[in-house]
Amino acid sequence: MTPTSAPTPRTPFDRGVGMVPPRGTGLPRIAGLDGLRALAVTVVIVFHLSPGGLPGGFLGVDVFFVLSGYLITRLLIQEKVVTGGIRVAGFWQRRVRRLVPALLLVLIACSSAALFLGGDVLIGLGAQVLGALTFSSNWIYIVAGSSYFDASVPELFRNLWSLAVEEQFYLLWPVFVLVVLIRMAPRARVVVLLSLAVASAVAMGLLAGPGETTRVYYGTDTHSFGLFLGAALAVVTRWWSPRVLEWSRRARRTLGILGSLSVVGIIALAVLLEPGDGWELRGGLALVAVLTATAILAVLVPGSPLARVLDFAPFRWVGERSYGLYLWHWPVFVLVVSALHTWPRTGWGGWALGSIALVIAVAASAFSYHFVEVPIRRDGFRETARMIGRQWRASGPRLAGGLAVVVLVLAGGTATAAAIALDPGTSESEAQIEAGIRAIEEGSVAPPATASPTPDVSSDPAVETPSPSSPPDDRRVILGSQLTAVGDSVMLAAAPALQAAFPGIAIDAAVSRQLSAAPGILQGLRDAGTLRRFVIVGLGTNGSISRDTLEQIRSIIGTQRMLIVVTSQAPRGWIPEVNQTLIQFAADYRNVELSDWYGAIQPHLDALNRDQVHFGTTGSAIYVSALQQAVDRLAVLPARRPPKSAPRLIRRRPVSTRTNAGSARN
Q1: 289 touches 249 (CB < 8 A)
Q2: Which portions of the chain are predicted below pLDDT 70?
Q3: What angle do the packed helices 88-117 and 60-83 form, to 10 degrees?
């Protein structure tokens, strides 16, 4: 995220609405925009560092995009008005001076700390550092298939994907403005910019789907609507009068009300919007961009009350340091979690980990702002280098300070190179997932020859169920031949154990899969005649779920099949609601059972990997045991009597035969 500084030249346009000179710089500043930056970085930090505090806090990135699009385009237009042209090379030089020093400090410091900790935090570090230095992180993650909402690998610099999107925009945008935009009529400029914004948002919505979340979320083309919308604001407000008397009271009041409601709306969406809902990519984030644009318009109104509120000193302090806060908070959090991996990631443990990371991130960003960002932005690289060089000709503390800077830079660079070189290549979770994939591909997923063929239960409800008194091996084979399991990477990690417990089980699992993908998968299996009697669905790790999707799944498999839904364990904000939804859904239907993976693993969190999602042998045994209990409960259900009236499936079993639903509450 890049809070952009205002331009140096002063023109009548500079003295536009809402501008006050910041202390000590003489540069114009738009009152209230720092408050919007503070809001954006706060919701992102709470989303990342708290256990479910703001499930939709990732939308703060889109607030930043609109702000950046507005400020950058305003800079370019103003330069054209003042000088008659745009120095593209000078613009890029200012961007490098503004962004790169703080970025290098984060890369060196956090990579050095990762070297000290070792393990999974070194996974893919070389590609991440390369992506950060070339501002191509988003495309590297797309190629690698890395999801923003996946925790199987603790990517140290995952948050830099948005910086890459902005920098790619900065690289191309001044050329576009110089060659195309300024040659157009004013109205045509607005039409073009709004058209680009709409095209980007529509592309995100149309391309979003199962397996495409990473592509549309990280893609520069599909996630640039906020930047284009902000650019359109810069063009529209170019002719706004800075004089209060030239505005009608009604116009100022209307924009003020709309702006205030927009800020409230952004906060509400940060609470309500959840990854995995689907609509966040099909209009939700575009709505955030529109609300942000409306808030900016309200701030630009002369004498704006909203601007005064957002210019409150603490908000301004956070906003001025929002770039550093965004850079530091995520890698620091990953490092803290890695160092204290035995702490629980929910409840008191989650809040404690987030608080520790927040304190470190605030201190680091404050240091970076005062001793790195401001000096280099003010004096430039050459003057800063000369100043450091002068320390060598000094004596006493100044010489020691200069020597310390050089030693720290050399040591940090060496440690970063060593951390990249020591990349283990595969995390423990990835190794377990890959073992599961191999087990599915190489193992017997079709029923063994000794088992009877899987019947079409949609036409023959009287399928023979293995008796509890049957020999254990025969019973396992018969059950395995009647099981279809659809899941995510958690199920992949358990795949070898599932095949051992249920020989012949058919497993369809994939990394980062969400519940929204299940209806299509199950419909395909049913159409192909390969959907079995017992259907297991374990899809709640990677995003929120909806009751409607569960009802759709039940409709697809039909009332003659049995459905088992698996609760989820992960340090994610949506997990409590996911589990509660599954508990209630299982309680509502006779042919739906709950496999309480969450409740079963809580006394044994030490059996989980550092990500507190995946597991090895011990965790697999617990996962299979919870599933075995659910299968056993369904397998002994008596046949359902034909209803005398309109069918209404309700649970008739004693409460004692069911899993204690309360144990799965998060």
Answers
A1: no
A2: 1-28, 149-153, 210-212, 245, 276-277, 388-403, 405, 443-475, 637-666
A3: 150
Contacts of 302 (CB under 8 A, 6+ apart): 17, 18, 241, 242, 243, 244, 247, 252
Ramachandran angles phi, psi of 534, nearest 5°: -105, 125
Q: What is the 3-class SS of 580-643, one letter each residue? A: HHHHHHHHHCCCEEEECHHHHHHHHHHHECCCCCCECHHHHHHHHHHHHHHHHHHHCCCCCCCC
Among candidate residues 342, 365, 346, the one with its CA nearest the CA of residue 354: 346
Predicted confidence at residue 581, as pLDDT, reads 95
Lookup: tokens for 51: 């256990």
- What's the Rg (C-alpha) of the chain? 28
**523: which 2 tokens?**
């419909």
Residue 248 phi, psi (nearest 5): -75, 150
Nearest C-alpha neighbor of 55 from the set 543, 568, 489, 579: 543
Considering only CA atoms, which of 475, 424, 468 is closest in space to residue 450? 475
The terminus-to-terminus CA distance of the chain in angstroms comes to: 33
Cα gap 489→510, rounded to integer Å: 6
29 bridge partner residues: 20
| Residues 344 and 19: beta-carbon distance below 8 Å | no
Structure tokens at 335: 């490092």
What is the identity of the amino acid at 98?
Answer: R
The token duo for 49 is 């560092």
pTM: 0.74
d(CA 286, CA 291): 9
Q: Looking at residue 150, what is its pLDDT?
A: 64
What gap in Å lies between CA 91 and CA 175, rounded to an integer? 10
CA 79/CA 82 separation, integer angstroms = 5
Per-residue pLDDT, 462:
36
* Cβ partners under 8 Å of residue 242, min gap 6: 15, 16, 17, 19, 302
The answer to whether 63 and 292 have CB atoms below 8 angstroms apart is yes
CA atoms within 13 A on the CB side of 134: 11
Q: Which two tokens stand for residue 252?
A: 């100022």
Q: Which of 528, 7, 515, 17 has the alpha carbon at shortest distance from 238?
A: 17
User: What are the distances in angstroms from CA 246 to CA 78, 187, 305, 352?
Assistant: 22, 22, 17, 52
Distance CA 379, CA 631 (A): 69
Q: What is the pLDDT of residues 599-628, one digit of tens each?
A: 999 898 888 888 888 998 999 999 999 999
CA–CA separation, 473 vs 233, rounded Å? 70
Q: Which two tokens stand for residue 646?
A: 């309109």
- The two tokens of residue 541 are 């790790």
Q: What does each C-alpha distance from 32 to 245, 263, 292, 308, 446 come to in angstroms? A: 21, 12, 12, 7, 63
Q: Is 320 exposed, middle or buried (0-12, 13-18, 19+ CB in 10 A)?
A: buried
